[in-house]
Amino acid sequence: MAETSPDDLKGATQKPPVIPPKILWAFVLVTSLFAMWGFANDITNPMVAAFKNILLLSYTESALVQFAFYGGYCVMAIPAALFIKRFSYKTGILVGLGLYATGCLLFIPSGWMMAFWAFLVSYFVMTCGLSFLETSANPYVLAMGPEETATQRLNFAQAFNPIGSLTGMLVAKNLILARLDTTGEEARRALQQTSPEQFAAIRQHDLDIIIGPYMALGLVVLVALVVFAVARLPRSKGEDDTSLNVGPTLKRLFRNRKYLEGVVAQTFYVGVQIMVWTFIIQYGVNELGLTAEKAQGYNMVAMVIFVSSRFICTFLLRYVSPGGLLMTLAIAGGTLVAGTIFIRGMLGLYCLIGVSACMSLMFPTIYGIALKGLGDDAKLGAAGLIMAIGGGSVMPPLQARIMDMDAFNLGFMTLSSTRASFVLPLICFVVIAVFGFRTSKVHGHTY
Description:
Blueprint (H helix, E strand, L loop, with lengths): L5 H8 L10 H21 L2 H8 L4 H4 L1 H23 L2 H17 L1 H7 L2 H28 L6 H9 L2 H16 L8 H10 L1 H35 L15 H9 L2 H32 L3 H25 L5 H21 L2 H15 L2 H10 L6 H10 L3 H13 L4 E2 L4 E2 L1 H4 L2 H19 L6
Antiparallel strand pairs: 1-2
Helix pairs in contact: 2-8, 2-10, 5-6, 5-8, 5-19, 5-20, 6-8, 6-12, 7-8, 7-12, 8-9, 8-19, 9-18, 10-12, 10-15, 11-12, 14-15, 14-17, 14-18, 14-19, 14-20, 14-22, 15-17, 16-17, 16-18, 16-22
């Protein structure tokens, strides 16, 4: 019988590298996209409050910013996946960057028109591009190296998404919210009646401030487009097969319960993320009397917590079941949201900020669980998970609708409509916890 050498034992027990050296440059380049769409997401969330004051909108109307922004993901996900399947991940990235830059630059004529619908169109075009980017980059990162380390690789790449988000928050706080005219909503309504010219001048001033960062972002994205156009990105396994085979692929996906449950869980996760990060400003303003700029500062604290927790949770995945950790964090997140609902004052705000620590792991982990083992079906499967980002377009307007209502008398206490509206994030965490449990206990043999 042949003897087993120490080198053979080492090769048998050593875990494959998360990022193989030969794809390091391509991985760095693609990972930069995660920061770029994180920036877009979180420079946009505070604009819900900004547009409400500038254009004198209701909470429900202003939340249409999120409906348009995340609606682009939902509409374009499947066309993007089919396009990528027919061509390549790199071509999908180039199209995504082109649409992203176009949407940003459309802010210039939207501001000149001073029309809310034009801004919504700009957001929609922008996120059609982001849909291409996410549909390309997420499965591409999974396919770049060994399947055994795919979820860790995606979690690591996704860790740079909140860095972009934090940068977007800083820009929103210091270059937009801090520079807007301080005239309040009621005073603006009065000016609209008594001095339309002055009201129009204030509105144009504020819209011009919003346009600037988006115009600069569009130019940066155009530079990125050029870089990716000349870069040599490795083709992943299966990319040479450009046949669509949509029907058989969809049949296989619809028979995969783990995948379908992952799409549902991702829908509710994106919904809770956008609700928490969008309405933390309204919570601070309505419950604590903070200015929008100061409330955005607490949003930035939440993002720092999110970034830190992402790296910690990525490390914990080496030792803990992804499904089990997902369930634990969802339960903790739901508990903190309950604190936001029932505890008044700063403690309620601290609970809301703390929710970000629980959300940090969720998107890439749900994504990795749902796509694991799908092979080439992951290209179209990824589209379903990007469509799930549409949860961010539907749920914020629903929460805003609750915020537009009167306070709720529960008998033992009265809840303001702002605090009561966070029942929707609580429901979302329940759904995510169930998926984490089922991943750990029911789908464990397929993970």
